[in-house]
């Protein structure tokens, strides 16, 4: 049975934040999650996460998805893997993949292909490597006739060895039984007084076992971040990789300033993404849409031909041909049906807006079911919360809601209802009726002269 051990105990002091280093985010997801998804995509579902600094944060994030073990003392990578020995014994008999939780760009294809090499060659250890034009700072891979002969860290490398461009990613496949054997033979006889996992390579070679390296087709597998600058670089690499994928699929970008797209987002051909737009989560966008500028779309399903301008939308569905914006907030649980037009300074929350309805400006529609071809006048509010419970409004087809109407939920407007401007509706209105609620206007002449007397005298 194959399994994986993910090292996620790093503190990342140079990040200057009290969270585990693998919990820093790349494109909105913790680096740890990138590594987990790569394993899952390669069919490896037996995972053990080695935690250390702020371990409770790792536990809270994983929420029981995978087994965790604690490295209470930071005594090196070998020591971290030692904490997972009980896990490996329980899931033994196969191979163990060791990965760094703060190297987010390991990918499923690299994991699968390196395992194929590992098994076909009968390797005791297979090191995952990459070729880099700028190998500075990484361990160099020294090859012989029958595989690799050593991994040399830069500080120990000769001038000739520093010219080698194949570098260690810090990811390894081991025969599980061999790995547990090597862990028992690691020592702290080094300048740092730590147990180095890389020493297992030398132990294996001294035992006459085969060690080889798989060169990943993805040179970014080696990338990690030690500080905020490095984290920014990771985000830049990931951001551009996602944008390039969408460009290849027929998505248009006339400017990518401020554009950030999550790697799970799907976008149809012919859609244009404008500057300042963030697309997050499991968002799906159809064909021939115009998204932006300056939109935030999170976990939404957006159909073909939609136009969004300065819109923030969350966990909602927007049907074909809808035009929304500018400065509109679509809150979770909303369904905007085809042909709807929503204008400036409108908020929709947990509501269905029927086909062809217009919500032009300065309106709040919350917890409501709105029919087809309804017109909302400026300043309309569905008053859905009485301080204790939230209630729904129901608005029938072809209603005309006058400016500054308050609908006090729960209330139902039938088909074709009109409400007069300034009306507060507190009870159901039948089909094709007019609701009007206007008190008698009282005019008190000279009132402002008396009230503002002192101010007017100074003028």
Provide an overview of this structure.
By secondary structure, the chain is an alpha/beta fold. The protein folds into two domains: 3-222, Spore Coat Polysaccharide Biosynthesis Protein SpsA, Chain A (Alpha-Beta Complex), CATH 3.90.550.10; 228-435, 3 Solenoid (UDP N-Acetylglucosamine Acyltransferase, domain 1), CATH 2.160.10.10. Helix content is 21%, strand content 29%. It is built from eleven helices and 41 strands. The strands form seven sheets. Strands 12-15-18-21-24-27-30-33-36-39-41 form an eleven-stranded parallel beta sheet, with no helix packed on it. It has a nine-stranded parallel beta sheet with strand order 14-17-20-23-26-29-32-35-38, with no helix packed on it. A hairpin with a 2-residue loop joins strand 2 and strand 3 (29-30). It is elongated. It starts with a strand and ends with a helix.
Using only CA atoms, what is the Rg? 31 Å
Helix content range of the residues, please?
Answer: 10-25%
How many discrete structural domains? Answer: 2
Quote the average pLDDT. 95
Shape designation: elongated
What's the N-to-C terminus distance? 89 Å
Question: How many strand elements?
Answer: 41
Which topology of the largest domain does CATH recognise?
A: Spore Coat Polysaccharide Biosynthesis Protein SpsA, Chain A
Widest β-sheet, arrangement of strands: 12-15-18-21-24-27-30-33-36-39-41
- The structural class is alpha/beta
**Beta strand %:** 25-35%
Which CATH class of the largest domain applies here?
Alpha Beta
Poorly predicted regions are none
Second CATH tier, the architecture of the largest domain: Alpha-Beta Complex
The total count of helices amounts to 11
**Biggest pleated-sheet summary:** 11 strands, parallel
CATH superfamily caption of the largest domain: Spore Coat Polysaccharide Biosynthesis Protein SpsA, Chain A
């Amino acid at each position: 049975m194959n399994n994986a051990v993910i090292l996620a105990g790093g503190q990342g002091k140079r990040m200057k934040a009290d969270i585990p280093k693998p919990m820093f985010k790349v494109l909105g997801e913790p680096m740890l999650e990138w590594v987990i998804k790569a394993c899952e995509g390669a069919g490896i579902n037996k995972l053990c996460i080695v935690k250390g600094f702020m371990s409770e944060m790792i536990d809270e994030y994983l929420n029981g998805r995978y087994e965790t073990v604690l490295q209470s003392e930071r005594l090196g990578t070998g020591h971290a893997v030692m904490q997972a020995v009980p896990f490996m014994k329980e899931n033994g008999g196969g191979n163990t993949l060791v990965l760094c939780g703060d190297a987010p760009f390991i990918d499923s294809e690299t994991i699968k292909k390196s395992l194929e090499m590992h098994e076909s060659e009968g390797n005791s250890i297979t090191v995952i490597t990459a070729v880099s034009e700028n190998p500075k700072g990484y361990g160099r891979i020294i090859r012989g006739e029958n595989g690799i002969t050593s991994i040399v860290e830069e500080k120990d490398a000769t001038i000739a060895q520093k010219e080698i461009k194949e570098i260690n990613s810090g990811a390894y496949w081991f025969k599980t039984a061999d790995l547990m054997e090597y862990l028992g033979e690691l020592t702290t006889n080094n300048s740092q007084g730590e147990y180095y996992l890389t020493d297992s390579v030398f132990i294996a070679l001294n035992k006459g076992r085969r060690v080889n390296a798989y060169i990943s087709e993805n040179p970014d597998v080696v990338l990690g971040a030690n500080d905020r600058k490095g984290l920014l670089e990771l985000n830049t690499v990931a951001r551009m990789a996602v944008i390039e994928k969408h460009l290849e699929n027929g998505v248009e970008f006339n400017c990518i300033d401020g554009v950030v797209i999550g790697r799970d987002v799907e976008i149809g051909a012919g859609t244009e993404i404008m500057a300042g737009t963030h697309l997050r989560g499991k968002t799906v966008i159809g064909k021939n849409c115009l998204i932006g500028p300056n939109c935030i779309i999170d976990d939404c399903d957006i159909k073909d031909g939609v136009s969004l301008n300065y819109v923030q939308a969350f966990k909602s569905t927007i049907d074909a041909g809808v035009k929304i914006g500018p400065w509109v907030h679509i809150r979770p649980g909303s369904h905007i049906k085809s042909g709807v037009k929503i204008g400036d300074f409108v908020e929709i929350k947990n509501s269905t807006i029927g086909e062809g309805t217009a919500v032009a400006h300065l309106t709040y529609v919350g917890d409501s079911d709105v029919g087809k071809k309804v017109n909302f006048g400026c300043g309309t509010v569905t008053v859905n919360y009485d301080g204790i419970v939230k209630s729904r409004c129901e608005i029938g087809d072809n209603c005309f809601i006058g400016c500054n109407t308050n609908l006090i939920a729960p209330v139902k407007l039938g088909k074709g209802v009109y409400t007069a401007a300034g009306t507060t509706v507190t009870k159901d209105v039948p089909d094709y009726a007019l609701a009007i609620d206007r008190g008698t206007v009282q005019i008190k002449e000279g009132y402002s002269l008396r009230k503002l007397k002192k101010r007017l005298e100074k003028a």
